[in-house]
Structure formats: C-alpha cells, structure tokens
Amino acid sequence: MPQHQPPARPRDSEASKARLLKAATDEFAARGIAGARVDRIGAAAEVNKALIYTYFGNKEQLFDAVMDAHVARVLDEVPFTPEDLPGYAGRLFDFLLANPHQLRLATWHRLERSGTDHEPQGLGTSMRQKTAAITQAQTAGLLTTTFTPEDLLVFTLALANAWMPTSPMATNDQAAEQTRQHRAAVVEAVRRLVAGIPTTQAS
C-alpha cells in the first residue's frame, strides 16, 4: 500500500524574513556591507539565499532593511524625555549596552551608505521631533538655553554612547562595577550639561 507524503507546509514568508534579518544583522555588524556575504546570511538563516533578492532586492537594500528595523526598535524602546535628558541618557546607555550591534551598524551605515538616498526610516523625523521638544522645554524653563537644542541633543547622544564597546576608550573585559560607574558618570554629565554653564565665573 503506497504511503502518502504529508502535504508540503506553505512557506512562512514572515518567519523567513525575520530569520534573514537576524542573520543579516550579525553579518553586517561584523563585516559591513562590502565584507558581508549573502551565502553566509542565507546559511545562518536556513533560507535559500535567493529569497534575499526576492524579499529585499539586493545586499544594500537588505542592509537598509536591517537599519530600518534597528532604528525603529531604539525609538520604540527608549522613550525620549526632554524634561529629563539625564534619565534618557541612562536608558539609552542601557539599551546600547544590551544591543551592541546598534552602534556597529550605525558606523557601517556612515562609512558605506553616506551619500546615498537612503536614510534609516524614521530617523530624520525623530531627530527633528526631539529637537523641537528640547526647544519647548527650553522655552518652559526646564532646560538651559546656554546651548542650542541641536547641541543639547547631539551632546546627550554622544555622552550616552561614549563607553560603548565601539568606543576606543572602552575595554572588552569591563567589569560590572565599572559599567555602573560609567553609567552614573554619563547621567551626571548630562545633568550638568542641561543645568547650563555660567558665562562668567569669579576668579
């Protein structure tokens, strides 16, 4: 009596895309766009590499999709509080420490995708909204006007990632206590930043 083969399971395209994005994140973070290989991404995702072209177009567009996903995640998981920039800096520090690929991908984007038409989805809008929110907080007297809104935002972001693994000052074997101290220093530095600096000081 012939045995009937079970019907083939329909391909779960969303699950395949998710595995490809995960594998691509690891590959791009480690090697950038030029060094990444679609065959390694396909193998890691356990997906035929031809589906990369079907779902995303090409390797550069796959990288753009990875960046879009990671920008969306940080915007969703780290709420911006203009009235409490030190707290925001601390939360961003925690997120970046827990997600080391975030800054590596951003660095590769600057190196290999600058000058292209692609901007990570939502990033420009988010930066403009954050700047506008800081302006409102300054008008309300909640933040110093010593610095422009753009400077306050950029300085806060820079301080939050100063001790990340991608920083030349950071070490790979940083102890937990050192990490706590660095986080506290970041929060305190932003607190002093938003408090403003007197234009004249007694000698």
Automatic annotation (TrEMBL):
A Pfam family reported for this protein in Swiss-Prot or TrEMBL: TetR_N
Keyword Repeat: no
Biological-process GO terms, alphabetical: regulation of DNA-templated transcription
Molecular-function GO terms, alphabetical: DNA binding
UniProt keywords, alphabetically: DNA-binding
Gene3D superfamilies, per the entry: Tetracycline Repressor, domain 2 (1.10.357.10)
Ranges annotated as DNA-binding: 37-56
HTH tetR-type domain boundaries: 14-74
This protein's record includes keyword Transferase: no
Name this protein carries in UniProt: Putative TetR family regulatory protein
